[in-house]
Amino acid sequence: MKMLDKERFNKVSESIMKYGRGLEKSLFKKYFNNASDQLVINELKKFQNEDGGFGHGIESDFRLPYSSPMATSVGVRILSKVNSSDESREMIKAAIEYLERSFCKKRNGWFAVSKEVNNFPHAPWWHYSEDLKMTVIDKNWGNPSAEIIAYLYKYRENVRKLNVDNLIEYAINYIENKKEFNSENELFCYIKLYKVLPEKLQKRLEKVISLAIDEVIIYDEKRWHEYVPTPIDFVKSSNSFRFGVLESKINDNLDFVIKKLESNDFIKPPWGKSFYKDDLKEAYNEWIGVLGLKSLITLNKFNRIKK
Questions:
Q1: Distance between CA 285 and CA 291 in Å, rounded?
Q2: Is the whole-model pTM more than 0.90?
Q3: Rounded mean pLDDT of the chain?
């Protein structure tokens, strides 16, 4: 079993400190230096607006300063890892209130971003189409709606208007009746929903998520340097539910990440640099920080870092 040695771990850590935002640096310190959650909370506050939602480029590929459901799902995702203090709970409460206000009855869910996204630097996949009245991301209902519903369920004591149980039922019915799966990002959202649900509802999701993953997952190691969904994108720790993902391929994928970090001190965004010009230039380096942190956290959760 291949392991990331201490010297290489330190090199990757240095790259996170060099390229990463304050947010990634604070998360690294939390996970690997036993730093206070307050460091992370202080960084997250920079992205939360007065309306409770998140914006300001917390999702690096769109720099919309205003709140959006997608950015707020990212904010709450991180807050849920540091939710033991009164301050973080208040931030979550405010975010839930924003998500209730931004709910679209007609969609029975959320659109990722508003059309104002076009007024600020953004990658092409975040462009709002006036013809479609949404972005290409919104072609798959579950991204971010399934993830948002996970947080409404987890923090339902803060929910005042929406019927969380009805939304969960809708989300499960949606994926059960879906004929074709082409968005791994939608499945990532459903896995987050799966993780917070009681066993009875998890059972309903297990088979369909497993079938969906089988449609989109790439097992061919020669393609893992591309922007493709790999085994450890779906199975993020040694004790995670496998959803039928092959154990041998999970191990191969972990070896692949270690080899990549051994040949370079950081992971470049596999979708390339061509999108990151002018006002979006800094997002490229931000992604180096995000991907480096993600790789170390995953390797650590599989006990693949030498102590």
A1: 10
A2: yes
A3: 98
